[in-house]
Amino acid sequence: MKPSRPPATPAPPTAPPALSPMLRILVGLAAAVVVLAGLSFARELVGPLALGAVIVIICHPVRFPLERRGWPRWAATTAVIVVGYLILGVMAALLFYAGVQFAQLVADYADQLKASAQSVLDLLESLGVESEAADAGASLLQPQTLLSFATSLGGTVVGVLTAFFFVVSYVIFMAADGARYTRAEASFGRSVRPTVRRFQVYNSGVRRYYVVNATFGAIVAIIDGLALWALGVPAPAVWAILAFVTNFIPNIGFVLGLIPPALLALVVGGWPLMLAVVAIYCVVNVTLQVLVQPKFVSDAVSLSLTLSFFSVIFWTFVIGPLGAILSIPLTLLVRALVLESDPNARWLRWLSGDPDAAPLRDGKAPEPAD
What we know:
By secondary structure, the chain is an all-alpha fold. It is built from 16 helices and no strands.
């Protein structure tokens, strides 16, 4: 007789998870609220930090051809810093010029602005609009309102310039650290390759995003400026600069860049000139910014249109006006840190607009695009 086998020992019961799925979601949301509240509280530090990081990411590729030509590492880092300072200097000069010219325009056309405000008020009242609503609509053309808008815009610029010391310092330190981070895989081996690859893709997406926006912004600014000059709208260069800057604000930048020149056209030329300005902006900006540019932006960053629009509002609420310009890089950073490191969050990446997260028919995910 064969010896009988001892009875199999039953496997120990699997311990239930410490937290239920719903509780984990609630804990994650609570942690996110705490983090975002901290970012909002420290917005005066976080905003310049994010701006400095974006500047360095944009300028970092300058070092590679210089190092291939035999430049020492410190010289290549210096070149990155110089290019970053040039970008900051040009943007600051453009904004300063536009702000000064805008304030001068308001002072020169103060009487016409008051007359236009009164005519708008009379028109609204003749249409049966209640006096409170009519006063609110007409107040948009009051010189005090426009000056407060310019002051608010100037305050934003002053806030950025006040933090210029921090941005300058961040650019120096980050440019120096960027040279060291390029050797991470050589120092730690292939184990860090997925992390390095993830941030390489992120940096590449940020650079492509700003290159696309700067290219289309320059095209839109030139066309809008020439059109306003041909129509006789005062200070077309100011509105061209405004069109260029607001092009970096996804979705709503077109509206922000249209309102000031349209109101000025109403003051100097009446409704026909205002409607002509609106028509030109709609044709040019809608064609380029709504129909053409989103295709290139989508290829650059792979974000859904809804998420792109919401990110502008969300990051402006969290870190202030800089959040509108930095909204896409910040959203991409959150996705890279939170979702791309978690293989179980692939479907969330797909919902955010990442086509590389969609599985193939054999169940394998495609390789991320360069």
